[in-house]
Design goal:
By secondary structure, the chain is of the alpha/beta class. The protein is built from twelve helices and 14 strands. Among the domains are: 132 residues, 3-Layer(aba) Sandwich (Rossmann fold); 139 residues, Alpha-Beta Complex (Argininosuccinate synthetase, chain A, domain 2), CATH 3.90.1260.10. The radius of gyration is 25 Å and the shape is elongated.
């Protein structure tokens, strides 16, 4: 351990990472630098400064990364219509590459030898942080206390605090029993009663959205404007990426949009039940797909959809900085050059419905699609040859007695 003189820690100011600061100082006999990121989690991050100072930390980084998070990570992911295992919008996963990047950059800026994080040895985040760090700096050393120490419960952490004079903030009132992670894209809930997949989540667990049953009885119309696949305005009002997503969260939450209860397959091999609130992301995804339906060529759209499972796996498993994700991103971004226009949606009691879409780059041709007289725009007789050519292999097989009927 003598080759480590300084460590950069991803620091939240909570119990776990406060213990980690002292543990790193004593175990590695080195200086610890703390890094706290504001990704729109809805809580003040500045109090982490005083907590770090009380632990003897001299170099403290607290950064507002909300705009970078949405514009450089969330939006590129949504250009791909990314969903993991058919449902999860990857709110936790997509935040980790940015944190990993800043950990590595701060280590370089401060002359640190290693980085550290508070992810446990059971979860996905340890993989995401460390794969990202190694991809950006192959020589960086990574320290994961939860894989080294014997502090295995909240009680042992509190005992460690008492023994080492670490101030612990005892919050008054009811404390949430859930393990939660929040940023501008979502808030997640795990643990407690959710560990039984049959148990329904308690209504007071949800923080951002009202129950669909309690949502307004009248729907609300929203028009989302896009440029090159990214949302840029709400109801004709231009907004920055972070401001736009925050506003969509408010709108969606008011109507009970974006709740999700799933059992997912973690990269480390276990199944995990989690609940998520992603109101703004749910609206964005619906609107983006609607605009693509009129601006993308059929084969481009279908090929792009075929990439979703692989792209989602890469994000979920921590391969944001991999060459294959970057290659896929280039193709996806190329497809978005014509995805410009507006989508009108209605939010109503937990649902998001598309009620209109328009674009100057639309491939929808009313003259061809009409059920009325198309004035020769489409020769319906051409369909006969098209069908017979596509049926050729089926008819050939049938003639040789290879019937598909069973």
């Amino acid at each position: 351990m003598s080759d480590i003189n300084k460590i950069v820690l991803a620091y939240s100011g909570g119990l776990d990472t406060s213990v980690i600061v002292r543990w790193l100082q004593e175990t590695y006999q080195c200086e610890v630098v703390t890094f706290t990121a504001d990704l729109g989690q809805g809580e003040e991050v500045e109090p982490a400064r005083a907590k770090a100072e009380a632990l003897g930390v001299r170099e403290i980084f607290i950064e507002d990364l909300r705009e970078e998070f949405v514009s450089e990570y969330v939006f590129p992911m949504f250009r791909a219509n990314t969903i993991y295992e058919g449902e999860y919008l990857l709110g936790t996963s997509i935040a980790r590459p940015l944190i990993a990047k800043r950990l590595v950059e701060i280590a370089e800026e401060t002359g640190a030898d290693a980085i550290s994080h508070g992810a446990t040895g059971k979860g996905n985040d340890q993989v995401r942080f460390e794969l990202g760090a190694y991809a950006l700096n192959p020589a960086i050393q990574v320290i994961s206390p939860w894989r080294e120490w014997d502090l295995t419960s909240r009680d042992t952490l509190l005992s460690y605090c008492e023994q080492h004079s670490i101030p612990v903030e005892q919050k008054r009132g009811k404390k949430s029993p859930y393990s939660m992670d929040a940023n501008l894209l979502h808030i997640s809930y795990e643990g407690a009663v959710l560990e039984d997949p049959w148990t329904e989540p308690e209504e007071d667990m949800w923080r951002w959205s009202v129950s669909p049953e309690m949502a307004p009885d009248r729907g609300e119309e929203v028009v989302l404007g896009f440029e090159k696949g990214d949302p840029v305005s709400i109801n004709d009002q231009s907004m920055s990426p972070a401001s736009l997503l925050a506003e969509l969260n408010t709108l969606g939450g008011r109507h009970g949009v974006g709740r999700l209860d799933i059992v997912e397959n973690r990269y480390v091999g276990m199944k995990s039940r989690g609940c998520y609130e992603t109101p703004g992301g749910t609206i964005m995804l619906k609107a983006h797909r609607a605009l693509e339906s009129i601006t993308l060529d059929r084969e481009v759209a279908h090929f792009k959809d075929s990439l979703i499972p692989k792209y989602a796996d890469l994000v979920y498993n921590g391969y944001w900085w991999s060459p294959e994700r970057k290659m896929m991103q280039s193709a996806i971004d190329e497809s978005q050059t014509e995805v410009n226009g507006e989508v009108r949606l209605k939010l109503y009691k937990g649902s998001v419905s598309v009620t209109g879409r328009r674009s100057d780059r639309s491939l929808f041709d009313e003259a061809i699609a009409t059920f009325d007289d198309d004035a020769g725009a489409y020769n319906q007789k051409d369909a006969e040859g098209f069908i017979k050519l596509n049926a050729l292999r089926l008819r050939t097989a049938a003639k040789r007695g290879r019937s598909l009927r069973k």
